[in-house]
Amino acid sequence: MSSMKFIILISLFFLFNGCDMGQSKTEDQYISEMETLLKEKLSSDYQIGGTQRATHVKSHGLLKGYFRVIDNLPENLKVGIFKNSKTYESWLRVSNARGKWQSDKIKDFRGLSIKLLEMENELQNTNDFVLQSYPTMALGTVKDFRDGMYYDIKKNRLYAALAFIFSGRFSTLLAFNAGREIHSSPLDIEYWSATPYKFDDKIVKYKLVPTSAFKSVLPDELTDNYLSDNMVTHLNSSSATFDFLIQFFQDEKSTPIENAGVEWNENISPFFKVAEIDIPVQNFRTKDREMLQMQMSFDPSNVPDNHQPVGGLNRARKAIYKVLSGFRSNRDNIELITPRHEDYD
């Protein structure tokens, strides 16, 4: 088949299937469309009283942990919550990334969200970090994010793939496929913020590096919940630990702010350790923990002013997280809470 015939066939395919290629619109219009799409999807997928998150639906566990800002940081790293050496009680939610429940046997991104408790700033009592198991966002711009969401919700994944190929964004599909993996355990892998954040008058990205002595192995036969099972085995006998690192913005070419689909090169901008995370031995497979993780919200904009998220994708997430959190809470009549550790000992 000639290339011209192929283009004509693809064009007809999109024409007769009601293609919306995401014509040029303002950022606010894209964000508004995504809010509407996601609320419609949640209303369609879940009955009242059982509304799930729009993404990262499947939780592997809600864990108690401790976030310790390390001693003797250089002065240029003593910013905001990292200003003083201190240990914060924390909650960590570990999840699959897909916007629906699916077996752990299916390749996926993993997510790790952290909520620091009892912050000193009386206007900001908690601080959230939202990270994923890949250094970039496959849908790295607001337009890409909107288009991917539209195709996935209104059409299907095949349609989405064809749409991105036809619009010259084949590299986006490659990035999405590269980040989906079979992992041994959520406690054994690295996580990145993927999007940038203020660091006073500078800008940084975050990274988590596992440092546990205990390492999980893949079971001979994967099960639907093997990731959670491996976490149980790990935390029955040993704590899980991570180093928390930051990486500084250098310039728009090598460390872009507006496109989260571009990895910040570590050779150009190295990482610096600023904190450690300790997840002690615990039993997290309880009904209380399962209910609690549904009542908690993790929002990358839930941070002090000097750590606010920046960049287009973060502007979209800030608006969408707020809308969907309120939608889920109001629809199911649940109160979003932030409990202390001692409330759930």
Task: Quickly list its features.
8 helices, alpha+beta, nine-stranded antiparallel β-sheet, 9 strands, 345 residues, 19% strand
N-to-C order of helices and strands? HHEEEEHHHEEEHEEHH
Shape: globular
Biggest sheet features: 9 strands, antiparallel
Q: Count helical runs.
A: 8
Share of β-strand residues? 15-25%
How many beta-strand segments? 9
Q: In whole angstroms, how far apart are the ends?
A: 66 Å
Oligomer: single chain
> What is the mean predicted local confidence, pLDDT?
88
The secondary-structure class comes to alpha+beta
pLDDT below 50 for ≥5 consecutive residues: which ranges? 5-18
The portion of residues assigned to helices is 25-40%
Q: Evaluate the radius of gyration.
A: 21 Å
SSE topology sketch:
Blueprint: H1 3-16, H2 27-45, E1 59-69, E2 87-96, E3 110-116, E4 127-132, H3 142-154, H4 157-166, H5 170-179, E5 191-192, E6 197-199, E7 202-210, H6 226-237, E8 240-248, E9 271-279, H7 287-294, H8 312-332
Antiparallel strand pairs: 1-2, 1-9, 2-3, 3-4, 5-7, 6-7, 7-8, 8-9
Helix pairs in contact: 2-3, 2-8, 3-4, 4-5
Task: Provide a quick synopsis of the model.
By secondary structure, the protein is α+β, with helices and mostly antiparallel strands. It has eight helices and nine strands.
Give a description of the structure:
- The chain is 31% helix and 19% strand.
- By secondary structure, it is an alpha+beta fold.
- Strands 1, 2, 3, 4, 5, 6, 7, 8 and 9 form a 9-stranded antiparallel β-sheet that branches.
- β6 (197-199) and β7 (202-210) form a beta hairpin.
- α2 (27-45) packs parallel to α3 (142-154) and α3 (142-154) runs antiparallel to α4 (157-166).
- The longest helix is centred in the C-terminal third of the chain and has 21 residues, at 312-332.
- It is globular and about 50 Å long.
- The chain starts with a helix and ends in a 13-residue tail after the last helix.
- Mean pLDDT is 88; it is low at 5-18.
